[in-house]
Every structure is written in C-alpha cells, then in structure tokens.
Amino acid sequence: MFSDQARELGLKTSLIERLISPYKTDDHISDSSNLIVLHQNYRSHPDILCFPSEIFYAGMLEAASNPSQPRHPTIPPLTFHSVTGEEEFQQNLGSYRNLAEVDEVVSMVQKISSTWPDEWGAYEPNQICVVAPYYYQV
C-alpha cells in the first residue's frame, strides 16, 4: 500500500521498477541489448531472494550461493510486520522514531535470541542485525 501523498508526487513506483520500465512489456522483460540484468545473487539466502525475484525481476533472479546456514526452525527468513503507531520527530537528533515499530523490533529480537538454534553455534547479540528507516529508531 502506498501513501496518497507519495502517489500524488509520482512516487508510487520503486526505483527498481522505474529503472527497468523502459525495457518491460507486460510481465516480460525484453531482450534489449541496452539492458543488463544480473540474474545470479551470491550474497543472500535463496529463501530471502524469492520475494525480490518475483516482485522486481519477473522470477529471473536466482540464488547462486551455497547456504550453509540452516534456517530457524520457526521464524521465516523474510517477514513483513504491519505495525500501527505514530512517528515522532526527535529535534535534537534530526530523526524520527515510531515507538510501536520499536516495540515490534524488540519483541522479534527477543524471540530470535530466546529460540536461537543450537546448530547456529553460541548466541552472541551482535549476530542479529536490525535495519530500520530512521537513525534514531536503530
């Protein structure tokens, strides 16, 4: 779902979609000699690449890595959470935060750390990375 304000400003299309749109007809990407699409990704686990491959690459992106890291037994590798909250601007830091989002992230980190699989080795807090849209929220 997109913000109405972003849509009015012409920002309803992702960067990847905008870059590839001149070469795309319907759901097919043409064989234009001006388009270079990398089909193999060596950095991400195959379970994580499924989403961008289907949404942005018409299924052409494939995982070329050999994942040695076993999956978590109960938590999927890529998860989207819908959280309702209010963004607050932190003037002294020049950044926003949304405490409802912070609470959700804290909950997920606690869940991951408390269910850390033995096959992953000893748990260390620095093995969990949190990515958030706002500096202050991190």
List the topology elements:
Elements: H1 4-8, H2 15-20, E1 24-25, E2 28-29, E3 40-41, H3 46-56, E4 62-63, E5 87-90, E6 95-98, H4 99-114
What would the keywords be for this entry?
138 residues, alpha+beta, 2 domains, two-stranded antiparallel sheet, two-stranded parallel ribbon
In short:
The chain has 138 residues and is of the alpha+beta class. It has helices at residues 4-8, 15-20, 46-56, 99-114, and strands at 24-25, 28-29, 40-41, 62-63, 87-90, 95-98.
Number-wise, the strands total 6
As a whole number of angstroms, the C-alpha radius of gyration is 19 Å
- Strands of the widest sheet, in order across it, are 1-2
How many structural domains does the protein architecture include? 2
Distance separating the two termini: 24 Å
In terms of per-residue confidence, which ranges show pLDDT below 50 for 5 or more consecutive residues?
Answer: none
Total number of helical segments?
Answer: 4
The major β-sheet equals: 2 strands, antiparallel
Q: Quaternary state, please?
A: single chain
Secondary-structure element order, N to C: HHEEEHEEEH
Structural class: alpha+beta
Average pLDDT for all residues: 81
Outline type = flat
Strand content: 5-15%
Helix content: 25-40%
Could you please describe the fold and organization of this structure?
By secondary structure, the chain is α+β, with helices and mostly antiparallel strands. The chain has 2 domains: 4-63, no CATH class; 70-138, no CATH class. 28% of the residues lie in helices and 12% in strands. The chain is built from 4 helices and 6 strands. The strands form 3 sheets. The chain has a two-stranded antiparallel ribbon. Strands 3-4 form a two-stranded parallel ribbon. Strands 5-6 form a two-stranded antiparallel ribbon. The longest helix has 16 residues, at 99-114. It starts with a helix and ends in a 24-residue tail after the last helix. The model has no long low-confidence stretch (mean pLDDT 81).
